[in-house]
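Marked as duplicate of an earlier ticket. Keeping the data here for the record.
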Amino acid sequence: MSEGMWALPKRYEIRLSGLGGQGLILAGRLLAEAAALYDGRFATQTQSYGPESRGGDSRSDVVISDEEIDYPHIIRADLLLAMSQMACDRNFYSLKREGILVVDADMVPHVPTNQAYVVPITRLAQQEVGKAVVANVLALGVIVALSGVVSRRAVLAAVLAGTPKGTETLNRKALEVGFRVGEELRAGR
C-alpha cells in the first residue's frame, strides 16, 4: 500500500486518455514502472492511439495489483484522466460509478459530472513549471496524490529514470506541483 494513506482494492485500473503528443503513453509506462519496479507490485500497461502522431486519440491503460494480473486490460476504470474533450466523451462510461475522474480544465469544457476533479493541468505546467510539455508528469503527480495507487517515492524514481536526460529538474518540479495540487483537491473534498 502506498505510504499507508488508505486501502486500495487489490486490482486498481487507471485510464490516461487524451490526444497524441500529450505524453500519455509515456505517463502510463512511468506509472506501471513505478508500481512494478519501485513499489514491488504487479502492473501492466497497454496503449491505443490513432494513426496521427499528434492530435489523434491516445490512451494508456494501467492495471496495478497486489496479485498476478490474469487480464491486462481495463474492465472498469477506478481512475480516468481526460486531457481532451474527445477523450472524456469516449471514456467516461468506462469509469466505475465511484471512480475518480480528473480532467484538464482548459481541454475539457463540458464535464459529464459534478464529481470530477477539474484541474488546469496544461496551464499549471506552463505557468508554474515553465513548459506545457510536462503536463503529463504534472498529471501523474495529481493522480498519485488523489489515489495513492503508488508511492510518491516510486513515481519520482520512475520519472527520473524514464524521462530524457537533462530534464530531471523540470520533471521533478512538475511532479511536485502535481502532488501539491492533488493534496489540495483531496483536502477540499
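See parent ticket for discussion. Residues 168-188 form the longest helix (21 residues).
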